[in-house]
C-alpha cells in the first residue's frame, strides 16, 4: 500500500482531474448555448424586420388576415429554440453526471479498500467497519435514488416538450372560423 503522502497526492490529482472535467463540460455547454442564442438572435432580427414591413403595408383589416400564416413559422422556430436549449442543457447534465458517477465509483472503491485495510489492522474494528459499510451503502443508495429521480425528471420534461410541440403545431394549423351574425 502507498504511503500517506502518495495517497494524498493521488487524491488531489483525482480531484483536479474531476474538477477540470466538470469545468470543460460546463464550458462546452455554455459555448453551445451561446452559439444557439446568437444564431437565434440573428434569425429573429431578420424575421422581425420582415414582419414589421408586412405590418406597415397593411391598409385594411382584411390585409391583417393575409399575414396571419406568417406567424406559424415563428411559433415553430420558438419551439425549435426551446427544444435546442433543452437538448444542450440535457447533454451538459449528462456529461456532468458521467464525470460524477465515475468519481463516485472511484471513491467507493477507495473507501472499501481503506475499510478492508483498517479491518485487518487491529482487533475490535469489526463494529466500526460494519458501521462504515452501512454508511457507504446508504450513501450509494441515496446517490442511485438521485440518479433515478433525475432520469424521471428528464423523461417528464421531454414528454412535456413533445406535448407542447404537438399542441403548438396543432393550434397553429387550425383555421379561424368566422360566424356571420
Provide structural commentary.
The structure is a single chain. This protein has one domain. It is 88% helix and 0% strand. The chain has four helices and no strands. Helix 1 runs antiparallel to helix 3 (71-121) and helix 3 (71-121) packs antiparallel against helix 4.
Strand content: under 5%
Q: Which spans have pLDDT < 50 for at least 5 consecutive residues?
A: 175-181
- How do the helices and strands follow one another from N- to C-terminus? HHHH
Shape: elongated
The overall number of domains is: 1
Total strand count, please? Answer: 0
Oligomerization status of the protein chains: single chain
Topology overview:
Layout: H1 4-56, H2 61-67, H3 71-121, H4 126-173
Q: What are its keywords?
A:
single chain, 181 residues, mainly alpha, elongated
Briefly characterize the structure.
This protein is mainly alpha-helical and 181 residues long.
Amino acid at each position: 500500500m502507498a504511503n500517506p503522502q502518495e495517497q494524498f497526492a493521488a487524491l488531489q490529482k483525482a480531484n483536479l482531474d474531476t474538477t477540470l472535467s466538470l469545468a470543460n463540460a460546463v464550458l462546452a455547454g455554455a459555448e453551445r448555448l451561446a452559439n444557439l442564442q446568437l444564431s437565434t438572435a440573428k434569425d429573429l432580427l431578420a424575421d422581425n424586420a420582415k414582419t414589421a414591413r408586412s405590418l406597415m403595408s397593411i391598409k385594411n383589416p382584411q390585409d391583417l388576415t393575409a399575414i396571419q400564416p406568417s406567424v406559424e413559422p415563428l411559433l415553430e422556430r420558438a419551439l425549435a429554440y426551446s427544444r435546442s436549449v433543452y437538448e444542450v442543457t440535457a447533454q451538459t447534465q449528462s456529461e456532468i453526471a458521467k464525470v460524477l458517477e465515475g468519481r463516485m465509483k472511484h471513491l467507493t472503491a477507495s473507501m472499501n479498500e481503506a475499510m478492508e485495510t483498517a479491518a485487518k489492522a487491529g482487533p475490535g474494528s469489526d463494529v466500526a467497519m460494519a458501521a462504515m459499510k452501512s454508511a457507504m451503502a446508504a450513501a450509494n443508495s441515496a446517490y442511485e435514488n438521485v440518479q433515478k429521480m433525475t432520469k424521471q425528471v428528464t423523461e417528464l420534461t421531454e414528454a412535456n416538450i413533445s406535448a407542447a410541440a404537438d399542441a403548438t403545431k396543432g393550434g397553429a394549423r387550425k383555421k379561424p372560423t368566422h360566424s356571420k351574425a
